[in-house]
Amino acid sequence: MATSKSDDTNQVIPQDVERIRDIIFGPQMRNYEQQFQTLQRDIERLQQTVDDLNEQLAEQHSSHNKAQQTLRREMRQADDGLRDELRQATQALTHDKVDRLSLADSFIELGNQLKTGGTLGNLLQTLTEVTEKK
Fold this sequence. Notes:
Helix content: over 70%
Structural class: mainly alpha
Radius of gyration: 51 Å
Number of domains: 2
Strand content: under 5%
Number of helices: 3
Order of helices and strands: HHH
Mean pLDDT: 82
């Protein structure tokens, strides 16, 4: 019978200890639990905010890359257009320039006209004839 009383005492002691612990630490533990839940909600909210910001950053990065590619393509097209214009201008100058021999003949004719005392009308007519022959 001593053992059964001892068993009853052992069972009562843990229940009493739990009750005493709840009386002493109960409000404090509930306060800690509320603070922990509040902190957990705050962390979840902050994590969601960080995830949203990361998504926005990824979208901005993507749009900046697209804009950069568009600008590069436009610059390349503008560069190609300028190079084509420069080639055409160079070809036009090469094609349209006065031939050295024609220019020499014109100067000789001009010299002859000055030497013989020709008029401006005769000079222009002679230069036109020389140019048409070539």
